[in-house]
C-alpha cells in the first residue's frame, strides 16, 4: 500500500513465526491442530511446497516449542500447590496457539491466559477465534443470561471489544497493546489476578524493542506479582560471522534488532533478569540455554530419533551453528517458582 507504517516490518514477523509452525506441523515435527485455524499462509503464486521451510528451520521450531513447553510445564507443576490457579501472559503473541494446546489438556489447573499484540494482529486473531467452533469451545462458559430475557439467543462465551481488536472470555483474553507505550500494561493488569502465580512469555518479541522498553516490561511484571516467572526466547550472538548474515537478511526486510546486541550470549540473556535497573527484588534467580544445549538437555533421545527420520539433514555442524544463536532464558521471583526453568 502507499502508506507504509514504520512498524509494518515488525508486525509481519508473526507471519514468519506462524509459517514456520505450519511447516513444522505439516512435516510431522510438531502436533498442533490449531495452527491452521489461526494462520492462513499467503501463497504468492507458488506451489504448496513453498509452505515448507528448510530442515534447519523446522528443527529449530521443534526445539524452541519443546523448550517453551517444558518451561510452561515446570511453571504449572510449581504452581499446583498455590491457592490461586496459575495464569499466563504472552507478550507479542501473534498467532501463537499455546493457549489452545494447553486447554486441550486436562491434567492441570489454569486460570487466566492473556495475550497481547498490536491491534492489527489482535483484530485478525479475534476474528479467527470467533469464526472457529473449535477455538471458541476452549474459552470457557458464557456469562449467565440476564433474568427476564427468556427470548434472548444463547449468550456467546466471549465478548469482542475495542472496535474488534480485543476479545475476552472466562479463560482467555486478547488485548491490543503496544508494549513500548508506558502505562499500556495497566490494561493487562485488569485482566489478571494480582495474587496468582504468573508466567510471562516473550517469544521473539523483546528483540524488536529497545532494551530500555523491554526492561520496563520485565520490571512491571516483576514488581506487580509476588510469584512470577518470565521466559524469553531470542536470537543472540549477532556479532560474529553468522550474525552478520542474519543481520543482512533482516535488513533486507527493513528490520533491525535493537535488542540483539546488548544480549549477545546465553549468559547475558540470563543476566537481563538480574539487572539492578529493573528495581529492587524483582527477579531473584535466572538461567538460560541455547537451542543447541536444549537439543541434548530437553529433547529426549526418542524424540530426536523420531524427528531425524522426517527430513534429511546433511550438516550437523551447520545445525550446531544455527541453534547456538537462539536462546531460551528465564527469571523467577518468589520461592514457589524458583525451580521454574530448563
Ligand atoms: N510470539 C509469537 C511466536 O513466537 O509465534 C510471535 C512472534 S513474532 C516474531 C513477534 C510478534 O511480536 C509479532 O506478532 C509482533 O506484532 C509483536 N510485537 C513486536 N513488537 C511489539 C510491541 N511493541 N507491542 C506489541 N507487540 C509487539
TrEMBL record:
| Alphabetically ordered keywords of this record | Methyltransferase, S-adenosyl-L-methionine, Transferase
The record lists the catalysed reaction(s) as: [phosphatase 2A protein]-C-terminal L-leucine + S-adenosyl-L-methionine = [phosphatase 2A protein]-C-terminal L-leucine methyl ester + S-adenosyl-L-homocysteine
One Pfam entry name? LCM
Query: Does the keyword S-adenosyl-L-methionine belong to this entry?
Result: yes
Domain of life from the UniProt record: Eukaryota
Any one biological process term the GO annotation gives: methylation
Q: Per the similarity annotation, which family is this? A: Belongs to the methyltransferase superfamily. LCMT family.
Protein's recorded name:
Leucine carboxyl methyltransferase 1
Organism of provenance: Vanrija albida
Amino acid at each position: 500500500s502507499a502508506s507504509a507504517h514504520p512498524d509494518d516490518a515488525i508486525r509481519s514477523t508473526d507471519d514468519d513465526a506462524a509459517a514456520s509452525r505450519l511447516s513444522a506441523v505439516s512435516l510431522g515435527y510438531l502436533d498442533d491442530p490449531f495452527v491452521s485455524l489461526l494462520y492462513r499462509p499467503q501463497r504468492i503464486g507458488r506451489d504448496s511446497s513453498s509452505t515448507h521451510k528448510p530442515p534447519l528451520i523446522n528443527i529449530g521450531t521443534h526445539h524452541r516449542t519443546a523448550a517453551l513447553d517444558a518451561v510452561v510445564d515446570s511453571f504449572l507443576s510449581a504452581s499446583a500447590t498455590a491457592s490461586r490457579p496459575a495464569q499466563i501472559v504472552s507478550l507479542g503473541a501473534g498467532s501463537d496457539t499455546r493457549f489452545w494446546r494447553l486447554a486441550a489438556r486436562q491434567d492441570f489447573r489454569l486460570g487466566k491466559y492473556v495475550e497481547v499484540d498490536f491491534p492489527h494482529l489482535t483484530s485478525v486473531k479475534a476474528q479467527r477465534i470467533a469464526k472457529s467452533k473449535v477455538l471458541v469451545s476452549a474459552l470457557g462458559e458464557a456469562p449467565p443470561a440476564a433474568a427476564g430475557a427468556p427470548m434472548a439467543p444463547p449468550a456467546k462465551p466471549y465478548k469482542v471489544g475495542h472496535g474488534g481488536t480485543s476479545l475476552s472470555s472466562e479463560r482467555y483474553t486478547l488485548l491490543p497493546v503496544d508494549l513500548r507505550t508506558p502505562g499500556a500494561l495497566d490494561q493487562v493488569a485488569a485482566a489478571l489476578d494480582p495474587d496468582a502465580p504468573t508466567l510471562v512469555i516473550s517469544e521473539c518479541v523483546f528483540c524488536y524493542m529497545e532494551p530500555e522498553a523491554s526492561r520496563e516490561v520485565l520490571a512491571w511484571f516483576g514488581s506487580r506479582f509476588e510469584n512470577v516467572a518470565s521466559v524469553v526466547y531470542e536470537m543472540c550472538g549477532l556479532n560474529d560471522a553468522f550474525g552478520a548474515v542474519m543481520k543482512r537478511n533482516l535488513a533486507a526486510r527493513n528490520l533491525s534488532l535493537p535488542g540483539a546486541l546488548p544480549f549477545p550470549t546465553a549468559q547475558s540473556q540470563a543476566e537481563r533478569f538480574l539487572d539492578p535497573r529493573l528495581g529492587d527484588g524483582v527477579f531473584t534467580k535466572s538461567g538460560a540455554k541455547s537451542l543447541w544445549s536444549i537439543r541434548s538437555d530437553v529433547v529426549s533421545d526418542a524424540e530426536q530419533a523420531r524427528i531425524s527420520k522426517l527430513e534429511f539433514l546433511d550438516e550437523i555442524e551447520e545445525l550446531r551453528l544455527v541453534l547456538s544463536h537462539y536462546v531460551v532464558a528465564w527469571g523467577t521471583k518468589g520461592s514457589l517458582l524458583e525451580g521454574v526453568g530448563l
